[in-house]
Specification:
mainly alpha, single chain
Length: about 190
């Protein structure tokens, strides 16, 4: 089965990009992202980028779209079902943690949403909590966009580097590594500044 899936993705750019979008969507979706091994799947898809079978920028765009849609669906679920979610027995047990999350989202929304994007267990829950706690869209949108732009290439990167290590013509390796280094330099400059 795995060989068939790998063959399918290596033969069709569209299927590979749909897989990137689907994995990032599901990884960002409330509760589903807790069950999905998204890091492993993204690294596997990154190997296709690193080996030159799909381009970095199309994969990045597909990942951005999937991530953004998953976050907004989660935010919408939180907003629409905030009453039942607040009454949910499981969440009532953690009311103190929910209060701290509400404080962090309202006082430090940029930091909370950005850091939450890169921490596995919080990735699918922060947008849900933001909607549930009625965080205004104007406070949710900017950090969500930034996180969705930065997260896909960060999670594709291990696979990209592994894919580059595969026997690829030297000129293609140089081009892939150059693009990865450029992205990494921009990320480090943004994080430091």
């Amino acid at each position: 089965m795995e060989a068939w899936i790998q063959h399918l993705f290596s033969q069709s750019l569209e299927y590979a990009l749909m897989a990137v979008a689907l994995v990032t969507f599901l990884e960002s979706l409330a509760f589903v992202g807790l069950l999905l091994p998204g890091t492993v799947l993204m690294a596997s898809l990154g190997a296709l980028v690193g080996s030159g079978q799909i381009g970095l920028y199309p994969a990045w765009a597909a990942g951005f779209a999937g991530c953004l849609i998953g976050d907004w669906v989660s935010y919408g679920i939180g907003w629409k079902f905030q009453g039942p979610l607040h009454r949910w027995k499981y969440l009532k047990k953690y009311q103190g943690l929910l209060d701290k999350t509400e404080h962090a989202l309202h006082e430090h929304s940029m930091f909370t949403i950005l850091v939450g994007r890169f921490v596995g267990p919080t990735r699918p829950l922060i947008p849900l909590a933001a909607g549930m706690l009625e965080l205004p869209v104007r406070k949710f949108l900017p950090p969500n966009l930034i996180g969705c732009i930065l997260w896909p290439p960060a999670y594709l990167m291990p696979g990209i580097l592994a894919g580059v290590a595969i026997d690829v013509p030297q000129a293609r390796k140089a081009a892939i590594l150059s693009g990865c280094c450029c992205w990494w330099h921009c990320w480090c400059g943004w994080a430091a500044g």
